[in-house]
C-alpha cells in the first residue's frame, strides 16, 4: 500500500489541448442518471433495483445536481414517490423526460469536455456495444444533453466517419492520458464498434476530442463483462499519476491471467509527461454467479461524485479491504459502499449507470 496520494496535484501537460475531458474526481455541476424501467435488464430481480437507485441518488444529490432521465410524466410521478420514501431531498434532483432503452448512462449519456473554459459535449455515437438491438433512443442522449443545457455538440469523427465510443471503454486522468483495452476497441471480429479502425485511429480521436494524446492500452477485461472488455471494471485513475488495478490472486480463477497481463503492461506504461504511473491493487470479490451465469462483479466500478466515492459491494470479505484501500486514496470525501448483488445482475454497477458533468 502506497503513502497518501494528493488527488489534486497536477502534472505537466505535454502540449496545449484545445479541449479536454476532466478527470472524474474534478468538481461536478451534476451527475446524469436514467431511472430503471426495462425489467428485461434484471429478469426476475427487478424489484429491488429502484431502491438501489434511490440510495445512489441520495448520496450523489448531497453534493451536486442529479439530472435524472425519466420516461414520461407518469414515470416521473412514480420516481418522485420512490425518492420521497427513501428520504431523498427533492431540491437537487432534476427529472428530465426522455425515452431511453436502458439505463447505462456511462455509455450512452453525454460525454462532457471543457473547451476554452466552457463546457461542451462530444458527439460520440452509441450502438449498444455493437451487440444489442435496442439503442436508438439511447443514441439521442448526447444531442438531448446539448440541447437541454444549451451547449455545443462537438464532432467526434475520424476521416469523415462518426466514431462509436462508450464512456465505460475509457478512463482519463484529465492531464492528457487515457486508459482503454485492446479487447474492447481492437478486436476485429467480436462487438466491433468501428470496423477498420486501428490503434492509431483511436489515439488520434482521443487526442483531438478528449485532449488525451497519451493512450495506455491494456489487454482484456474481466469475466462476465458483456461489453467485451470495458476498462472501468479493471483499472481506474484515482489521481493524475495513480491507477488502481484489480488483481485476482486465485490462479484457477478466469480473471487471474488477464489481470496479471494487465499488471505487466502497466509496469511498462508511461504517462503523458514520460513518467511511470504508480499502481495500487484492488482485490476482486469471489465469483458472483446467478442462474448459472458469471456476473462482472468488480470494485473498480466505483463512481466519484462531489460528496462521496460510491463503491459496489457484494457481501464478500474483500468488500472491507476494497473500501479501505479507496478510503486511503480519496481523503477529500467519504468512501461509501453500495450493495450491488442485485444491481450486477443487469451486467453493470455504479460507474456503468452514471455520467459526470464537470464544473467550469
Distance separating the two termini: 33 Å
How large is the radius of gyration?
A: 19 Å
CATH superfamily: L-arginine/glycine Amidinotransferase, Chain A
Instruction: Tell me the CATH topology.
Output: L-arginine/glycine Amidinotransferase, Chain A
- Give the spatial strand order of the biggest sheet: 1-5-6-7
According to DSSP, the number of beta strands is 21
β content, as a range?
A: 15-25%
Shape: globular
Average of pLDDT:
95
Level-1 CATH class name: Alpha Beta
Count of individual domains: 1
Overall CATH architecture: 5-stranded Propeller
Order of helices and strands: EEHEHEHEEHHEEEEEHHEEEHEEEEEHEE
Overview of this protein structure:
This protein has 360 residues and is of the alpha/beta class. The chain has one domain (19-358): 5-stranded Propeller (L-arginine/glycine Amidinotransferase, Chain A). The chain has nine helices and 21 strands. The protein has helices at 49-60, 73-85, 105-108, 128-131, 141-149, 182-186, 199-210, 256-267, 318-329, and strands at residues 19-20, 28-34, 65-70, 93-97, 111-115, 118-122, 153-154, 157-158, 161-162, 171-172, 177-181, 214-218, 235-237, 242-247, 278-283, 289-290, 293-294, 303-304, 309-313, 335-339, 355-358. The strands form seven sheets. Strands 1-5-6-7 form a four-stranded mixed beta sheet, with helices on both faces. A four-stranded mixed beta sheet has the order 4-3-2-21. The longest helix is centred in the N-terminal third of the chain and has 13 residues, at 73-85. The protein is globular, with a radius of gyration of 19 Å. The two termini are 33 Å apart.
Amino acid at each position: 500500500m502506497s503513502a497518501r496520494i494528493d488527488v489534486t496535484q497536477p502534472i505537466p501537460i505535454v502540449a496545449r489541448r484545445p479541449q479536454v475531458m476532466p478527470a472524474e474526481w474534478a468538481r461536478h455541476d451534476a451527475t446524469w442518471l436514467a431511472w430503471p424501467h426495462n425489467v428485461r435488464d434484471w429478469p426476475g430481480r427487478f424489484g429491488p433495483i429502484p431502491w438501489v437507485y434511490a440510495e445512489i441518488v441520495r448520496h450523489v444529490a448531497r453534493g451536486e445536481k442529479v439530472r435524472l432521465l425519466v420516461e414520461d410524466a407518469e414515470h416521473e410521478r412514480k420516481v418522485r414517490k420512490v425518492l420521497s420514501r427513501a428520504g431523498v431531498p427533492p431540491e437537487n434532483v432534476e427529472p428530465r423526460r426522455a425515452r431511453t432503452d436502458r439505463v447505462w448512462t456511462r455509455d450512452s449519456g453525454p460525454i462532457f469536455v471543457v473547451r476554452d473554459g466552457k463546457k461542451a459535449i462530444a458527439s460520440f455515437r452509441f450502438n449498444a456495444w455493437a451487440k444489442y438491438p435496442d439503442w436508438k433512443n439511447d443514441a439521442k442522449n448526447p444531442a438531448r444533453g446539448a440541447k437541454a443545457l444549451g451547449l455545443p455538440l462537438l464532432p467526434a469523427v475520424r476521416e469523415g466517419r462518426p466514431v462509436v465510443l462508450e464512456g465505460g471503454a475509457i478512463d482519463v486522468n484529465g492531464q492528457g492520458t487515457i486508459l482503454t483495452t485492446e479487447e474492447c476497441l481492437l478486436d476485429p471480429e467480436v462487438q466491433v464498434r468501428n470496423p477498420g479502425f486501428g490503434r492509431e485511429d483511436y489515439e488520434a480521436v482521443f487526442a483531438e476530442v478528449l485532449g488525451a494524446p497519451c493512450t495506455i492500452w491494456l489487454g482484456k477485461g474481466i469475466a462476465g463483462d458483456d461489453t467485451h472488455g470495458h476498462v472501468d471494471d479493471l483499472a481506474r485513475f484515482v489521481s493524475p499519476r495513480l491507477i488502481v488495478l484489480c488483481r485476482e490472486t486465485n490462479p484457477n480463477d478466469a480473471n487471474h491471467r488477464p489481470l496479471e497481463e494487465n499488471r505487466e503492461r502497466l509496469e511498462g506504461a508511461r504517462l503523458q509527461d514520460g513518467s511511470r504511473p504508480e499502481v495500487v491493487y484492488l482485490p476482486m470479490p469471489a465469483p458472483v454467479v446467478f442462474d448459472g451465469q458469471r456476473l462482472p462483479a468488480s470494485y473498480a466500478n466505483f463512481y466519484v461524485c462531489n460528496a462521496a466515492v460510491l463503491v459496489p459491494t457484494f457481501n464478500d470479505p474483500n468488500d472491507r479491504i476494497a473500501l479501505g484501500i479507496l478510503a486511503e486514496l480519496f481523503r477529500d470525501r467519504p468512501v461509501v459502499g453500495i450493495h450491488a448483488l442485485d444491481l450486477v445482475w443487469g451486467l453493470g454497477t455504479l460507474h456503468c449507470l452514471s455520467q459526470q458533468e464537470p464544473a467550469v
